[in-house]
Each structure stands twice: as C-alpha cells, then as structure tokens.
Amino acid sequence: MKKILSITALILLLPIAPCIAQGRCCHHDEKWRECGRDYPRYYIGKDDVFFNGHKVEGASASSFSVLRDGYAKDTWNVYYCGAKIKDASSSSFEVLGFGYAKDTWNVYYDGGKIDGAASSSFNLLKYGYAKDNWNVYFDGRKIEGASASSFKCGSDGYAQDNWNTYYFGNKIN
After folding, report:
1. Rounded distance, CA 17 to CA 92, Å?
2. Cys bridge to 103: 91, 92, 162, 165, which one at CB 3.0-4.6 A?
C-alpha cells in the first residue's frame, strides 16, 4: 500500500517538477510577479533555446543547461531570465541561492553584477544576507556600515554585528 501511495505521489508531482527546479525561492516571489512571471521556464529545442516563449539569442541548445533561480548557461555564456549576462564566465559560474551567483571574477544578484563584491571570499548566509571579507549584502545591495568580520544571522530576518542589529537588511535604531 505504501508503495502504491508513493508511486501515485510521484506521478502527481512529475508535471510540476520543472516548475520546482526552475522556480525561485519564496523570498523572491514578489519580485517575480512584478516582472510578470510567476516561474521562469527555459525550453531547450533541437536547435534553439527559449525562455518564457521568447528565443534566447545566441544560446547553444546542444550545451545549454538550466541551473536555478532563473540562471542558465551554455559552453560560452551565462543567462538570467533568458538574457545574456555580460562578461560572466560559464566555466566557473555557480548559483549560490536567494538570487546570488558568482564566477571566478564577479558576484551577481538577479543577473546583475554587484560592484565591489569579492568573488573569492563571497558567501551566502541566510534570509537574503551574504558577505565577503569586506562587506555585507542584503538582496544584492551593500549594507552600509555593517561589519563583515563580526556579522552573524539570527532568525526570521534578524542579523547583527558588533555594533548594530538589522532586520531584513535595515539597521534598527
């Protein structure tokens, strides 16, 4: 009986598996709705790649792979929501989560380069927080005055360093 229930559950979940694999985490649902897309979808055809019904220009169908959080890549390029990310290195590109990704030289948030972020020391924390050796970030923006060396995430969006407490990236006075 358990086997039959398990198989039935798998069959029912199979059609939504691509949505889950390509979908964003709950944290970004609002941003996705603003863009007019609930869950991004790539489709790899015989010769072309499509994103939400539009051809992804320059993408190689033979080497194209869908990553997560709207990111994808082929042998030569990296894409976010179907658009090529300028100067991103396909060979070293990795998706970190919460919209963050990095390659050997740069850090990205929702497909845009985060100026000044150090790829070599960049780490994803929790609740949209991330840091490198010098700065702390929330949803891709630098938190001014936050101390990277003492920064720690608490629970439910709270975080702190030696001097301040933050709630979803905002300093609490």
Report:
1. 26
2. 92
